[in-house]
Amino acid sequence: MNPISVSGQLLDATGHTRRFIDLPALFGDSLTRLPVVLRLLLENALRNLSGDERQAAIDGVLDWLERGTSLHEIAFYPLRVLMHDTTSTPALIDIAAMRDVLAEAGADPSQLNPVLPVDVSVDHSLAVQFHAQADAAQRNLSEEMRRNAERYRFLRWASGALDRVRIHPPGTGIMHTINLEQLATVASGCKIDGEPWLVPDTLIGTDSHTPMINGIGVLGWGVGGLEAQTVMFGMPVMQRIPDVIGVRLSGALPAGTTATDLALRVTEALRNLGVSGEFVEFYGTGVATLSANERAVVANMAPEYGASTGYFPVDARTLAYLRETGRDASHIANVETLYRGAGLWFDPHATPRYTRTIDIDLDSVERYVAGPFRPQDRLPSGATGRTLGADPAPRRGGLPDWPIALAAITSCTNTSDPALLIAAGWVARRARARGLHVPSWVKTSLAPGSPAAADYLARAGLDHDLAALGFDIVGFGCTTCIGNAGPLPEPIARALADAAATPVAVVSGNRNFPGRIHPDLGHAFIMSPPLVVAFALAGTAAIDIEHDPIQFDAHGLPVYLRDLWPTRDTIAASLAAVRADDFGTAFHNASGNPLWAGLDVSHAPRYAWSPRSTALRRPPFVARDEGSLLGDYDAHVLLALGDDVTTDHISPASAIPPDSPVADFLVERGEPRDDLNVFASRRGNWEVMVRAAFYSKSLVNLLAADLPVAHTVHGPSQDVMPIFDAAQRYREEGRPVVLVAGARYGTGSSRDWAAKGQRLLGIRAVVAVSFERIHRSNLIGMGILPLRLPRGVTPQTLALTAQDRIRIRALPSDVAPRAAIEIVITRGDGRTESLVTTAAVETRLEVDLLQRGGVIPSILARALR
User: Fold this and answer.
1) Is the Cα dihedral 353, 358, 362, 363 positive or negative?
2) Cross-strand pairs, 632
3) Does the first or last residue of the chain, that is N or C, have fewer Cβ atoms within 10 Å of its Cβ?
4) Dihedral class, residue 748 (left if φ above 0, else alpha if ψ from -120 to 50, else beta)
5) What's the pLDDT at 626?
6) If DSSP codes are grouped into helix, strand and coil, which group holds residue 675?
């Protein structure tokens, strides 16, 4: 059965006939009861599968429609892959190493190429070394190119040596903003069996915030780099048909609130609901009141609310966004034609079947912040001081107890919406008019997701107002949001050294885990861009920003937030400065980065590894004979950890501390201790990354009290030593190791090195209360078995010590989706206790990966057939 047997025909904007999957004809009235995200998965399966596999997908969706959940699996074949530089580098290094393996086996290395288009945005390496100066962006870009030249030459090699790999150079913007403004088609033309088709645009991305594109109705979500590799080489994303949480929106956002506030409200509500990997879809009349830019802000934070997606279906707001960003009129018409004809168009009055639903009245949304440790910890914007337990007394000079160290308008989440940047500009304009200045201890920065922001802010005349407060543009990349904040201001560094204050960050980003923004900052609040400016002016988090004076002007008069906050009409008037041709022109100009074009690169089929490199090394796990980690074994516990261990804890991305073992390792190899760059820049060097695993000041190893950073206890000897050294000793002794953790293990970013590092440490299984979706997938991609503890059992209740051992019987024949796996704990005194865990394995493809030893052996086996 071919796709034509389930297709219909429609006329495109030029009057030509195109085929499409005609869901209304196939499913009739029942289609409207199905969430749009599942309609998209069904369309994809009908188009790409045949015979029994296609019928199984249909049966699974019908089963879901009857029960609101299903254990059936469904294949998803995205049209493209999106990556950034610090997730693409390890993935492309794996491919380069696999080409070496092929060549060494006598095969042609150039035969190994992605079969899907792969777009790579170089956005994760820009650091805020320079700020509050007109040339900060150019100076930071030059510094970025200097510090990352070897890695960037590798990326340019990959774009020339590998088919279908396209690199967007530094300065072109943040990947998710580029996706919104440049790459997403919403509807794509293609040929199937020689016939022209219109199909929905779909993708996966190696960044957890890929769902931002859900804001304009494109189905896509974040995966780990390992899963992306399987998709690049033609394998589908296999998943259980997802449960879908419906979020019904009613009303409209009140004056004075922003899309950021709604995103924080949604994040809290869905985390409280216990969302963990489900798809989320927004429906109801309130959806129609939100612009596509506002929807994208909410969709962006899907990983923060625990979801795979945060989907807003296509409607007139989507078409308006495509016009506003310069898309072709005939293409926009084709989008409407396809989505209406295929039964995918949004109906604000429809009430599809969902697994669970919640209601949010947009009229009730207020100004919020989140923090100081987690994005789901929503607070009224005026509650920062109370939350910190700060003395509300006014400051009388000197550094306050809770000074704002970093005030960063950063990240794709909130800088991709022009309305939010314009609102920040107006707060700056009104503050400047009152003669206000940002205190000297506050490091300010503005890093928009799009280079077009510089044009429309200048046209609106707001760039000078922002610069007057120190919010000059520092570049177009992720910067502070991912820990590339650069050095702290000298007064803050001195206060930290003297323990004289507790500095705080305020960011318009999406994550605020301790140490995420900067390794020396444990407190951070997420908020909208205009609130970032207001807190920067206040200089302290120990304030009720809604009621206390932010500052006093030259006349001694108090200036309140209400005096600075712009009205909706004011913002709307300034939005006229945004022009549709800004986006394409700015992106084109930035793509011509001469520093990037001037890199000297080779395009030979195999990459020439340098034995002296501290950035790029051929990884040992890319080999034909690595083998499966499954089996029947008695293991020591390398680490026992609590709840909410993030991928930042497991594999840090921020600056490499100069006094760390990782720094010592690099200095021994000739690197200057004062210029080590960030951990993320070393993801091409496995020797660095395995030593960096679990290097976090805020991570607590429960095996013993008061262990130093990144240390554990070697069980047989009871020696306290660095985790890497203990893992090496266990390996030399032939002793397997496992890791035990609490709830939400692996929350945060999609980085595959959080799993690769564990594989290189010898960890064969991770036993946890629960796993975040992407990290669970990455563990399986490296052959590591994830096991869920039974209800009520936690690392704390187990009270493990380094002398305890855990026997795991998980032979290849024992492992199946959600299989029961018994483990036996043998205590140091000989006592035993058994527990029945559940394999956190969802599909037959995941079982196959575990049996083969992970993604890389699977790809090599296919390539060597």
Assistant:
1) positive
2) 809
3) C
4) left
5) 81
6) coil
CA 717 to chain centre: 40
Eight-class DSSP state of 311: B
Q: Which 8-state DSSP code applies to residue 214? A: G
Predicted confidence (pLDDT) per residue in 221-277, tens digit: 999 889 999 999 999 999 999 999 999 999 999 999 999 999 999 999 999 999 989
- The torsion angles phi and psi of 618, rounded to 5 degrees, stand at -65, 125
- pLDDT tens string 144-185: 999 999 999 999 999 999 999 999 999 999 999 999 999 999
Which residue's entry shows tokens 């510090």? 147
Of 270, 219, 306, 210, the C-alpha closest to 38 is 219
Residue 208 to residue 189: CA distance in whole angstroms: 27
Report the candidate in 722, 717, 826, 806 with the shortest Cα–Cα distance to residue 766.
806
Please state the φ and ψ torsions of residue 738, each to the nearest 5 degrees. Answer: -135, 170
HEC string of 414-442 equals HHCCHHHHHHHHHHHHHHHHCCCCCCCCC
Q: Which residues pair with 707 in a beta bridge?
A: none
Look up residue 609 and give its amino acid. Answer: W
**From residue 144, how far is each of 130, 588, 639, 671 by CA, in Å?**
11, 20, 35, 17
User: CB–CB of 111/102 below 8 Å?
Assistant: yes
What pLDDT shows up at residue 560?
Answer: 98
Q: Assess contact for 248 and 283: CB atoms under 8 A.
A: yes
Q: Which region, left, alpha or beta, applies to residue 753 given φ > 0 means left and ψ of -120 to 50 means alpha? A: alpha
**Cβ neighbourhood burial of 14 (10 Å; 0-12, 13-18, 19+):** exposed
Beta strand 443-446 pairing with 404-409: parallel
Mean pLDDT of 54-67: 95
Instruction: Identify the burial level of 720 via C-beta atoms within 10 angstroms of its C-beta, where 0-12 means exposed, 13-18 middle and 19 or more buried.
Output: middle
What secondary structure letter does DSSP report for 839? E
Residue with tokens 């296919």: 862
Pairing of strands 244-250, 279-283: parallel
- Which pTM does this prediction carry? 0.93
Q: For residue 816, is pLDDT > 50?
A: yes
Amino acid at 568: R
Tokens 């107002």 label which residue? 465
647 HSE (CA, 13 A, CB side):
32
- How far is Cα 757 from Cα 754, in angstroms, rounded to an integer? 6
Q: At what angle do helices 580-591 and 452-459 cross, to 10 degrees?
A: 130
Q: Which two tokens stand for residue 576?
A: 């006229």
Radius of gyration of the chain (CA): 26
**Closest listed residue to residue 189, CA positions, set 340, 5, 13, 326:** 13
Q: Which of 100-109, 135-144, 170-179, 619-628 has the lowest mean pLDDT?
A: 619-628
Burial class (CB in 10 A: 0-12, 13-18, 19+), 72: middle
Q: How far apart are CA 813 and CA 634, in angstroms?
A: 18
**Long-range CB contacts for residues 657-660, cutoff 8 Å, separation at least 24:** 657/519, 660/695, 660/709, 660/710
